[in-house]
Specification:
With about 160 residues, this protein is mostly helical. The protein has two domains: about 1-30; about 50-135, Flavocytochrome C3, Chain A (Flavocytochrome C3, Chain A, domain 2, Orthogonal Bundle). The chain has helices spanning about 1-25, 25-30, 85, 90-95, 145-155. The protein is extended, with a radius of gyration of 25 Å. The structure holds heme C (2 copies). The site of one heme C (HEC) has 20 residues, from helix 3.
């Protein structure tokens, strides 16, 4: 008997939250910032891209490094790969750009190729620019080293 009562309550709570969910759907769609569906708002300004030419720290060893320069108008397509005109092994002396790492010359079986592997051809799949904007969401990412330090400090207290 008791069990049935909880089931009914659970159902009512679910039904109510579904109803509320529909009723407040407009407020949840934050990307439109409440602009009615039949009108258009002014587009946000295009943010400036970080172009400081200095390396940013990687957050973990396997992170594809962020791009510290502007890449506007750098084509990467079937005919050309602008990135490779500076980052290829043969070009680095002239460009002083860091060479793409050796992993970029490996095929999926781990064989080294003379040219960039097709798996690494589309640079922007993994490497991104940074824009000078406010974070949309607060980021509470913690570096591994910070976590280790925290734990060490804690175990000292114990
Ligand atoms: C005109 C030459 C040139 C071109 C084209 C170019 N880069 Fe670079 N890149 C550099 C140089 C030089 C650096 C070293 C830092 C700096 O001076 O900005 C660099 C740094 C980088 C880094 C940082 C590496 C690290 O260890 O932190 C990445 C990632 C990168 N470039 C990716 C790209 C991608 C992706 C493209 C194409 C969309 C591209 N680059 C096109 C010259 C170039
Ligand atoms: C599938 C993901 C992926 C693609 C595609 C990719 N990269 Fe990377 N890249 C990485 C990762 C991960 C690292 C860091 C680990 C490593 O070196 O393999 C890296 C490292 C680098 C570095 C730093 C090398 C060093 O020794 O410091 C440069 C420069 C770079 N990539 C440029 C490029 C360029 C230019 C392209 C396109 C031609 C490209 N990458 C395509 C994932 C990728």
């Amino acid at each position: 008997m008791m069990k049935q009562k909880t089931n009914v309550t659970a159902f009512l709570v679910l039904a109510l939250s579904l109803f509320l969910g529909v009723a407040t759907a407009d407020e949840i769609a934050t990307l439109r910032h409440g602009t009615p569906i039949d009108s258009e708002s002014d587009p946000a300004a295009i943010p400036q891209v970080f172009d400081g030419d200095i390396k940013t720290k990687r957050n973990y060893p396997m992170q594809p490094p962020l791009i510290p320069h502007d890449t506007r108008d750098y084509d990467v397509n079937l005919q050309a790969n602008k990135c490779m005109s500076c980052h290829a092994r043969r070009r680095t002396e002239e460009s002083q750009a860091p060479m793409i790492s050796v992993t970029h010359y490996m095929d999926r079986e781990g064989n080294f190729l003379a040219e960039i592997s097709p798996r690494r051809y589309f640079c922007n799949q993994c490497h991104v620019n940074q824009t000078m904007t406010r974070e949309v969401l607060e980021n509470d990412f913690q570096d591994m080293d910070e976590l280790i330090e925290e734990r060490a400090a804690k175990s000292k207290d114990d």
